[in-house]
Amino acid sequence: MLELCKKCIDRLGISADVKEVEGSECMLCLGLLWRTEEIARQIAESLEEYEFDTFQIGSRLEGSVKALEEYIFEKYGLTTEKSLKYHFNRELTKAFAALTGKSPDREPDVTIIYNIEKMDYETRIASLYIYGRYKKRVRNIPQTRWLCSACDGKGCEVCGFTGKRYPTSVEELIAEPCRRMAEGSYAVLHGAGREDVDARMLGNGRPFIVEIQNPKKRHIDLEKLEEIINREARGKVAVCCMKFAKARDVAFIKNAKFRKVYRAIVEFDREVSREELEDALKVLSNRVIEQYTPKRVEHRRANLLRKRRTYGIKLLLHRGNKAVIEIEAESGLYIKELVSGDEGRTRPSLSEVLNNYAKVVKLDVIRVEGGI
């Protein structure tokens, strides 16, 4: 005979072969349906150091409790709306909301998973996401942390025991103040593409999102955060337009095909006339460029054929064997290879059209369209 408490009998709607017992003696809910307020209080106390506005509660049913419920459901032909998980989650959600004043939500700041069999729970703190745009005003700073290839970040003589190939990065200059202000455990930067280490990011800045993991603070002053980042970066990097974002915005930022405008100083093997150069740029404007993965990055990226479009290329300055050109192109086009040809891996290229080897001496990104 089943020994069930009144709450389990009522929710299941069964009476045959059932003996009503006290909540703590219930074979199915183990008294948990009678302790939701107590459990809510325990969870709230464990989260006292975290700021949050929304939550979601779920539960796990396993072991003997799960086996017993499956037996009861099969015997009496019951539906999932009568399950212990459904009722426990609902009652605990109501108790937790009433106690804390927080709101249940499908995209919560905090997720609580209660293990009914073990009578224990775990909490998951959602990352905090902050959107902005950054300018990189100096060269030779990578966008993200770049580990030393000689020691794989462990520290060695090659990297001066820093574990890094470069002393700092855009990510460190932006993400660390964010992590510090939110009191998170770690922070990473997600950029809308990336510029080369030796290229600057100017103009309206590159869209980015900083993801701060396990933040204790969510209600942070973004104007003050901007001020701190810009002061501590000491002119190397500057941020603006910061606002709170959602987890789904990261995928958009990383995958969106934002148009980009570049300014390149180009040097040729031999002098080229202005007319010849302008004609070559017309050939390369508003057309699809086929590029295999550049030789300079093939050690870390798959050798794929990429097709990207140029929208417009303008000659800004020309003197002898040097020129300054402006290129508007689809996201993902390798600009240095568009100029050099990369030994035939990019076609057409400026070098190919002119039959005159050309290379980018300096490169700046001056506009990235789009954002959130």
From TrEMBL:
<comment type="function">
    <text>Responsible for synthesis of pseudouridine from uracil-54 and uracil-55 in the psi GC loop of transfer RNAs.</text>
</comment>
<comment type="similarity">
    <text>Belongs to the pseudouridine synthase Pus10 family.</text>
</comment>
<dbReference type="Pfam" id="PF21238">
    <property type="entry name" value="Pus10_C"/>
</dbReference>
<dbReference type="InterPro" id="IPR020103">
    <property type="entry name" value="PsdUridine_synth_cat_dom_sf"/>
</dbReference>
<dbReference type="Pfam" id="PF22023">
    <property type="entry name" value="Pus10_THUMP_arc"/>
</dbReference>
<dbReference type="InterPro" id="IPR048741">
    <property type="entry name" value="Pus10-like_C"/>
</dbReference>
<dbReference type="InterPro" id="IPR005912">
    <property type="entry name" value="Pus10"/>
</dbReference>
<dbReference type="GO" id="GO:0031119">
    <property type="term" value="P:tRNA pseudouridine synthesis"/>
</dbReference>
<dbReference type="InterPro" id="IPR055174">
    <property type="entry name" value="Pus10_THUMP_arc"/>
</dbReference>
<feature type="domain" description="Pus10-like C-terminal">
    <location>
        <begin position="129"/>
        <end position="369"/>
    </location>
</feature>
<keyword id="KW-0413">Isomerase</keyword>
<feature type="binding site">
    <location>
        <position position="262"/>
    </location>
    <ligand>
        <name>substrate</name>
    </ligand>
</feature>
<feature type="active site" description="Nucleophile">
    <location>
        <position position="196"/>
    </location>
</feature>
<protein>
    <recommendedName>
        <fullName>tRNA pseudouridine synthase Pus10</fullName>
        <ecNumber>5.4.99.25</ecNumber>
    </recommendedName>
</protein>
<keyword id="KW-0694">RNA-binding</keyword>
<feature type="domain" description="Pus10 THUMP">
    <location>
        <begin position="40"/>
        <end position="115"/>
    </location>
</feature>
<feature type="binding site">
    <location>
        <position position="334"/>
    </location>
    <ligand>
        <name>substrate</name>
    </ligand>
</feature>
<keyword id="KW-0819">tRNA processing</keyword>
<dbReference type="InterPro" id="IPR039894">
    <property type="entry name" value="Pus10-like"/>
</dbReference>
<dbReference type="GO" id="GO:0000049">
    <property type="term" value="F:tRNA binding"/>
</dbReference>
<dbReference type="GO" id="GO:0160148">
    <property type="term" value="F:tRNA pseudouridine(55) synthase activity"/>
</dbReference>
